Amino acid sequence: MSELLQSARWRLPLLAVGQMQKEVTHNEALTLIDALIAPVVEAQGVNEPPSAPQLGQCWVVGAAPTGAWTGGAQHLACWTSGGWGLIAPRTGMTARLAGGTMLHFDGAQWAGPAAVPVPSGGAVVDSEARAAIAALIAQLQLQGWLEQN
Questions:
Q1: What whole-number distance in Å separates Cα of residue 52 and Cα of residue 58?
Q2: Own/partner pairs for 47-55, CB < 8 Å, 24+ apart?
Q3: pLDDT tens digits, residue range 13-36?
Q4: In what order do the strands lie in the sheet with 44-46?
Q5: Band of residue 149 on the pLDDT scale cut at 50, 70, 90
Q6: CA quadruple 90, 59, 74, 26: dihedral positive or negative?
Q7: Phi, psi for residue 29 in degrees, rounded to 5
Q8: Do 110 and 44 form a contact (C-beta atoms < 8 A)?
Q9: pTM for this prediction
Q10: DSSP run (H or E) holding 80
Q11: Could you read off the pLDDT of 70-90 as tens digits, one per residue?
């Protein structure tokens, strides 16, 4: 497909003047949008396409993809009624693992949240402040924004 017939940001297919079967192009764009809005992935770093994916399931492709994912390192691979759709990620993109952990694409790779240690030490012990910080960390972990220790 020509560069002129794709959106600039996500390369969604655009309709052309006088195009026949516009529903094919339109449905492809809707399928990509469906995968890109708040994406949820089954697993990260997978190199081989699963043998029996369900419609709508997505994976973050690993660094050495094989089979239908060849050439799609670090892409989102989504199973659609038309087969595998590989979507190149953009810097700053986030996705949620099916288990709840958030992933972030930094321009080169997908990474999960960093572990944040529970506060300790210090010259003056303030148990209320530590309890509040620990509760905040627990909530961030529960929401998938921080890795659980």
A1: 12
A2: 49/77, 49/84, 53/79, 54/79, 55/79, 55/80, 55/81
A3: 888 888 888 888 788 778 888 878
A4: 44-46, 58-61, 76-80, 83-87
A5: low
A6: negative
A7: -65, -45
A8: yes
A9: 0.70
A10: strand 76-80
A11: 999 999 999 988 889 899 999
